[in-house]
Please model this.
Amino acid sequence: MKVSIIVPIYGVEKYIKNCLISLFEQTYNDIEYVFVNDCTPDNSVQILTDTIELYPNRKEQVKLINHAKNKGLGAARLTGFNASTGEFIMHVDSDDYIPKNAVEVLVNKQTLSGADIIEGSYQKFIDDKTLFVEYPFNGSKEDRIRRIILQYNISNNIWAKIIRKSLYTEHDIFNIEGIDAGEDYVVLPRLLYFAKVASTNEVVYYYRDSDVSTFKPSYKNFLSFQRAKKVLYEFFIKNDKEKYIDTLMLAVLTSIRENRKESFGENKIANDYPIFNNHLLFRFISGLFYRKFIPYSICNFIFKLVRHIYLIKH
Model:
């Protein structure tokens, strides 16, 4: 079973060699490596080509695709996906790395389970300091999807997994160019909706918690997340409106809350979701955030209370 590992490259010359070594020294052999150079301004690609020469047994398994202009992470993931030929897809960010047996562990679990998504644990680290291990979610698929949509105490990472490629293609689920904050958020819940999932507690990914990989609040990132939420809204309204309608409402309120917190400007978010106009709770909470004379702390407390009650209910 061939696994295609997709690796976007941009501004990672300090870290990419460690990533490459971990990829090329995998104990599993049937791997296709798809690197996407998103017009990196540094020496990352040269480090890649130099490192490939150290692993002649892997050289024929490597594809390097160069974007003509910088398109962002969402587009880089999509380019890599379109160029891949493996039955399963694995995403690895080029400032992170994986254990040498990661692919083998995930493939073995897939063989036993027949699952569409196989995920493992991941460990955070900062430079040489290791942090905590995050284990796969232990709960129902519906609860997981709800929590991801709400961005509530759960990761939405597309890495630390292998994913059946046909799961993407048969359901028209792809990364979207321009969605670079929320690029995993827009994909994973939709894949989970259709997928059989299996997991292992073995660590299969090392995630760098640093300035390179840390999400930073900005108006650009906020707008990107808004595009991602609109895609999820349209998907779940179409596929399972009754089950996820309240979740989607709270997700929109989360955006209204963030807009108020960060003072990004005039708030017109609710206009994009007319389905909630007659929802009294939505109108009440959004109205609180719209009124600048009401302290943010009070609005936020009421929102968190409602969200907590909702999650207990479900």
User: Anything to note?
Assistant: Residues 219-262 form the longest helix (44 residues). The mean pLDDT is 92. The radius of gyration is 20 Å.
